[in-house]
Amino acid sequence: MKKISLIFALFLATLFIACNEQQNTTNSMDTDNPLLQEYTNEYGIPPFDLIKTEHFLPAFNATMDEQTAIIQQIIDNTDEPTFENTIEALEYSDLKLSAVSSVFYNYLNINTNSELQEIAQQMATLSTQHNADIMYNKNLFAKVKTVYNNQQNLNLNQEQTKLLEETYKMFVRAGVDLPEDKQNRLREINEQLSKLTLQFDDNNLAEVNNFRLVIEDKADLAGLPQNIIDGAAEQATTDGITGKWAFTIHKPVLIPFLQYADNRNLREQMFKAYTNLGDNDNEYDNKNIVNQIVNLRIEKAKLLGYNNYAEYVLEENMAKTPDKVYDFLNNLFEKSLVVAQQEAIDLQAMIDADGGNFKLQAWDWWYYTEKIRKSKYDLDEEELRPYFQLDTVLNGLFAVVKKLYNIDIEQLNNVPLPHPDAIAFKITNATDGSHIGVLFMDFYPRASKQSGAWMDNYVNQYKLNGANNRPVITNVLNFTKPSGNSPALLSLDEVSTLFHEFGHGLHGLLSQCTYPSLSGTSVARDFVELPSQIMENWASDPIVIKTFAKHYQTGEVIPDDLLQKIQNSSKFNQGFITVEYLAASLLDLDYHTLTEPADLDVNAFETAAMQNINMPDEIVVRYRSTYFGHIFAGGYSAGYYSYIWAEVLDADAYQAFKETGDVYNQDVAKAFRENILEKGGTDDPVKLYINFRGKEPNIDALLQKRGLL
What is the rounded distance in angstroms from the CA atom of residue 700 to the CA atom of residue 698? Predict the structure, then answer.
């Protein structure tokens, strides 16, 4: 996913990420604070080796003061408002503030501690006030409006026109035209939302870190892969309980446990520990936080003139309206449910055949799915891991993108790193060696790191005064760790995730935009997953897999019969996978189409939402409300549907390659790079897609891909 860091999400929602070249106000700042200095190393990497926690608050205060002064200069300018002295000046007003924000909120996600969390809470207030002071400044907006109303006479190019439109809408959607009392209430709401979303994420991280399933009897390990057993032994040693096995609910541990552990009671414990995250009536409980967030968003939408929060959000997306999203999701859910119901019947038959005297439950689904996969397709997903050593897969990924986009990727040593676990790579154009950007990759879970996988920016791409400022991007992942004598061996799903996040990285790295607020991944939420999800197609293509799937001990290329098994089973369990995802998308929309604040019983609301779509009892929604971080702590509120919306695009886009008979076709890759990856948010996404493909996407490619036709 494309991660939008908590408070930084508010910056993106109300301010453009920008830079300032015309102001030299650093003399008023702390010259000993590395966050306030220019990034002078060769690649424009932040000085991570010099940054300390105590630098952040002074840097935030100094850079917010700097932007305030620049904006006052815009207002005080007595010349007629123009695109250059108003729109561009505002766009380029917060280089240092953006830089500080990027470092801080990435730190908060990858290496949090109580001090950073406390600063984040303080910034929830400070940043909300700062943003509101800009957004509600009627003198500033008057100048913006003057330029906006005169745009027909300005001879602007496409990107300039887009920037002007987005700047104008930014003020209007923030509530600049509202009376003062309503603006003050919006300030309060935004501040409260900032703090609540932070607390939601902190609570989930604490819950994940606090759980351990400790096994003392070796017999209870029956069925588990050796690498998972070895990892649990190492975890127990880390926890100070040597001689036992400790299992966390980090996904690289949880999923194999549910797939392979023979002990049904232990599977149930692990499953419920995960699905009850934030719902344990303890100090980390998120139910009340969800209730508050939902109600505050309803109130915010109403103040801004919308019926509900989804209307407010979707206005800026490709989908445009909640009804259109509901129609899209319900159509897919209806098709998927039929497939999932048959899958449940097949699983129950397997249970009965095994002599199990019980009804299929959610914690059984993964386990018996693997049994059927083995029985029906002779495929055990664990036999794939030896062919997917992380380093080998990574080199294969790099080879794919070099063939597609003619870029070279080289590891960088002796550069500042955001965390000791991170690895840095230099990305260059293969033809002339010119610098494209820097990519950090951070692969494994740790207690101070949020779960999941995401891409984010440390430095944005933009052009200014003839210079093309190149980006610094990060891919953050939580993969299966090396254990025992084995290196990191990935599951097929983790391979797909690696390609996915690198696709987001390419979107940021290959950007060729003028304005930072329109560059890279600064696109509609339901368009941003296209560059990432299309990469998953190469991760699963048999021609491509053979280039990187090699046994970590023997070097043997993955056998054709194993590849055939993967292909034969590619549509297996897609009913379950699609239903649990769509249920989460519909739950998200149900919350955000509420029109009146209420004292919600979150669990009752969720249950009713699932009953409304006839959700099978044997399947739990992919993210229950109390740990649905995408919508309650990230940037996907009223937008979780985006993944499958974008999958319509990516399935159709990959078909453009397949139609040529060459998945590396240079003409198609060039068109995708020039019309999608380089363009950021400089034009309407529908136009960008048609410019690439020559037509609008067809949903049939998605249905065929998932076996739902």
Answer: 5
